[in-house]
Amino acid sequence: MLLNIFFFIKSILSEQQIDKCPFADSIKSFSGDKLQLTPTTISKDHFCHINTFFDVSFESDPHSKIQITKIPDQLFYDCMINILSLSEEITTIGISSFYNCKINTINFHPKSKLREIRNNAFMHCTLPDSITLPDGITFIGNSTFKECHSLASINLPNSVTYIGNSAFEVCHSLASIIIPNGVTFIGNSTFKECRSLASINLPNSITYIDDFAFYRCFSLASIIIPNGVIFIGNSTFKECHLLVSINIPNSVTSIGSSCFSACFLSSIILSENIKSIGANAFYNCYSLKSITVNSGNSNYKSVDGVLFNKNGSKLIFYPQYKKEITYKIPDGVRTINNSAFYECKSLKSIIIPESVISISSGSFLKCNKLKSITVSSDNLNYKSVDGVLFNKNGSKLIIYPPDKKETTYKIPDGVRTINNSAFYE
Length: 425
Hints:
By secondary structure, the chain is mainly β. Helix content is 1%, strand content 28%.
């Protein structure tokens, strides 16, 4: 690819070193601290592992009709760039163009025609703590700024319509960002582990928030999900420990697995439009006291703050911080979901009706105050003996309550199987 390029590289190479470069024939002149490269095919030339600061300038050539429009893929790798100056004509920064570089200053031309920053372009770079991208950019690719730990703020122009997966993943210093109106989705892991991210504005154009989008954003205390979002993915807000409240708009129809796991939400309100809730969506929400479902929802309902499917045959989730010490599972429940009562802080006893036919092995896991489980004598599938849960014929010991106080327990004759985690505390 023929490009008119002028690189100004200061204080790094001797004339003897230049003679050994694969692009040595392109050198027009070299004097003192300046290296100037003439128009050349550089598709095979790369600058790697230069550990002394130098300046890089992409400039127009007034004597040529051909101008630089794209910075080639992987042009710089693991270099130390003091000042990076981009000319007006550059429209594209290529894939991994500056991967793992340290860049002190980035200068965009006032009339920049830059439109695309492609995948990994600045991945794992040490960048200035603040960057303002020029108007006109529409595309920010996958992992573009991933692992740029020093980046504390970035101003995105209103022209941006696409932000790729993992674009800002593990930008540990990024504290706030405004997403332009026109972006329609937040991709997979876009802000994953942005541990300083405390504020983000999502535009009304967003319809889709993908898996892990805000996973482990430890400083995120609040976020407004726009009315128009229909999908919130798996683990989207998982381990956002400061997130204590959230409004799920009526437009949302699907909440992914572990979506709000390990948040400190105190209550959740689900609209009539929710059609699917993934496994463990509210798992480890240690402050959660109640889940409320709109009565018009055709898939789910809540009874006394507990989440069920619509006909009440499946108990899906019992809030962990619900204060009752005894809970009687309603008649009609046939299935108790895996982790339905996981780490419930207050429960001391549970009463199981005759209708229950399926209890998952992890249904009562880590209920550390649980002293007894009582099963209706009419239940055809389960029974309890001295507060311990068995299958009906007594051949399987399913759960021994963690807070049962006996110092010695003799497993009854006839038991052939001891369930995995039966004695888990």
